Amino acid sequence: TYRCGWYLLFCLFWTSNYIVAIGDMAIALAVARYYFTREKWRVGSWTVFHATWQVLWYHSGTCAYGSLLIAIVQIIRAVIAKAQRAAKKADNRFAKAILCCCQCCFCLLEKCLRFISKNAYIQCAIFSSSFCKSCRKAFFLIARNLARVAALTYVSAAVLIIGKLFISSVVTLFGYFLIINSGVYQDLNSTAGPTILIFLIAYWVSDFFMDVFDMSITAVLHCFIADEEMFTDQIYAEDDLKKYIDENGAEKDNE
């Protein structure tokens, strides 16, 4: 039963990361197909469904491999967390320090794997390459355009945070007035609890939706850089996109 519990936990980690990977690559594939189409009106709503089908049919192994690496790190972190609780009960300071350092290292490793896997899925969506090859392409693409990627990442992160807070605030305000103007208000000792709960749920839901925009922004940036490197004469990027990246992104490192 004890070993079965660890096995089921590993399956939970792998399955949840696999579902996220499928969604990320489907978004990246839909964005790439839209970007590399000159006649944008030809791209319709069915592009998302077709991209999802392509990911499930052709790129399931890539998503499974990337999610497996993250799941392995997560299960190692779970084992370390269990060992930390045992060290805390035994009041062993040396063991607690060592395990804390290990937990920090594996947490950093998980963050790095998530970052490189996310960018690898985009490269796989654009070039249909394998996971390891996509990781290598994503790493060198970011290295070649480090300043530009960093600048646009900070700008997009700020926009996404503002969007989450705006959505959560509007929903919370609407819920507050709904509570005040309903009969439920008479049965409550305070509106602070329900209002905070509404804000937390709204922020949680908005985070899911804004993650789609986050992945789309990163995919567009990858497509733009690949477009510049492959099609120097007549790129696919529209004038508004080129103007935005020139204004908000740093100059390319090789310039």
Brief rundown of the structure:
This protein is mostly helical. It is built from 8 helices and no strands. It has helices at 2-35, 46-58, 60-90, 93-127, 131-144, 146-180, 192-230, 239-248.
Q: Provide the gyration radius in Å.
A: 22 Å
Task: Note the overall shape.
Answer: globular
Indicate the percent of residues in helices.
over 70%
Total DSSP E strands:
0
Indicate the low-confidence ranges by residue numbers: none
Strand content: under 5%
Structural class determined from secondary elements = mainly alpha
Main beta sheet strand tally, sense and closure? none
Please characterize this protein's 3D structure.
This protein has 255 residues and is mainly α. It is built from eight helices and no strands. It has helices at residues 2-35, 46-58, 60-90, 93-127, 131-144, 146-180, 192-230, 239-248. The termini are far apart. The mean pLDDT is 87.
